[in-house]
Design brief:
- InterPro entries: AraC_lig, AraC_XylS_family_regulators, Homeodomain-like_sf, HTH_AraC, Tscrpt_reg_AraC-type_HTH.
- Keywords: DNA-binding, Transcription, Transcription regulation.
- The chain is an alpha+beta fold.
- The chain has 2 domains: 189 residues, Jelly Rolls; 111 residues, Orthogonal Bundle (Arc Repressor Mutant, subunit A), CATH 1.10.10.60.
- The chain has 13 helices and 10 strands.
- The model has no long low-confidence stretch (mean pLDDT 86).
Length: 316
């Protein structure tokens, strides 16, 4: 089977999409979202809006079928026109709460824009490299489906299914919307991945490079193995020196540090969700002793694994 580094990496970030609400907004309307950890999204079902994202000088105009994904940490605002006020999302929800059916209505008595609002949740540590590699906003435009490009078919099909589910009241609607958005997120990242840019070398470029991409995928997929730099280099057909240099230039850190981050990320997930002892988790993420695991974990996270687990339990 052909190597697919992007799929191997996306499997590890544990993507979960969630639709917060279907919003019916009448002009004048608007709201702003301060930087948040999940990747927020807004999908225009009907009507139009202006999207203003920190780091982008001019507003972006979105129409029916357009999806905007804003990676975690980026503040943004949406509104019907440049003159409409943008209260915070929390202020808007205090005035116009989401009802039991997950629907929200807000604004004046002007033209209507309908949109799906939600977020893509990813394991923060595992997803850091991916999110950092994405632009301030990732756009999937419906009009691209009319172009003779390789992405037209999937865009047309997925958006058609989303449109059907938005307008139905059938049982399972919310679950299907969430899963369809999972697919759309992966497709959007793949489309961005396949378009070369003039940006400086980075993590996505590492995945595009056959040997370094294979190494990154290997470290994500088999992080618990007792890898050395030499053994990873040998698996991808490079000398240790050449591999280390190329990996550092493209990924931005050494292979050993990257592997450790993959292990710590998986440990964080297990500490949050699995009923395993610290010794069992240490073994699952590639450490021969609980002490060695705890030392590395504390160095990267700032607290030991036991304290990390207790903090998570107390916040539930």
């Amino acid at each position: 089977m052909t190597s697919d580094p992007l799929s191997d990496v996306l499997k590890t970030v544990r993507l979960r999409s969630r639709v917060f609400c279907q919003s019916t907004m009448r002009a004048p309307w608007g709201f702003r979202v301060e930087g948040r950890s999940p990747a927020s999204f807004n999908l225009v079902v009907d009507g139009s809006l202006l999207l203003e994202v920190k780091g982008i000088p001019a507003p972006l105009s979105l129409g029916p079928g357009d999806l905007a994904i804003v990676p975690g940490g980026n503040a943004y605002a949406v509104r019907d026109s440049p003159d409409s006020p943008t209260p915070t999302l929390e202020e808007l929800l205090a005035v116009s709460p989401v009802d039991a059916e997950g629907r929200l209505s807000h604004g004046g008595d002007g033209p209507v824009t309908t949109l799906l609002c939600g977020a893509f949740f990813l394991d923060d540590e595992s997803a850091r490299s991916l999110l950092d590699a994405l632009p301030p906003v990732l756009l999937v435009r419906a009009r691209d489906a009319d172009l003779a490009d390789p992405h037209a078919a999937w865009l047309r099909s997925t958006l058609a299914l989303l449109d059907h589910e938005v307008h139905t009241t059938s049982p399972g609607r919310r679950l299907l919307l969430d899963r369809l958005l999972d697919i759309l997120f992966v497709q959007a990242v793949r489309a961005h991945f396949q378009v070369p840019t003039n940006a400086p070398p980075g993590w996505l470029d590492a995945l595009r490079e056959p040997q370094i991409g294979a190494a990154v995928a290997l470290l994500h997929r088999e992080f618990a193995r007792p890898w050395t730099v030499a053994s990873v280099a040998a698996r991808v057909g490079l000398s240790r020196t050449v591999f280390t240099e190329r990996f550092g230039v493209l990924v931005g850190e050494s292979p050993a540090r990257y592997l450790t981050r993959c292990r710590v990320a998986r440990a964080m997930t297990l500490l949050r969700s699995a009923e395993l002892s610290l010794a069992q988790i240490a073994e699952q993420v590639g450490y021969t002793s609980e002490a060695a695991f705890s030392k590395v974990f504390k160095r990267y996270v700032g607290v030991g694994p036991g304290a990390f687990r207790r903090a998570g339990e107390s916040s539930r």
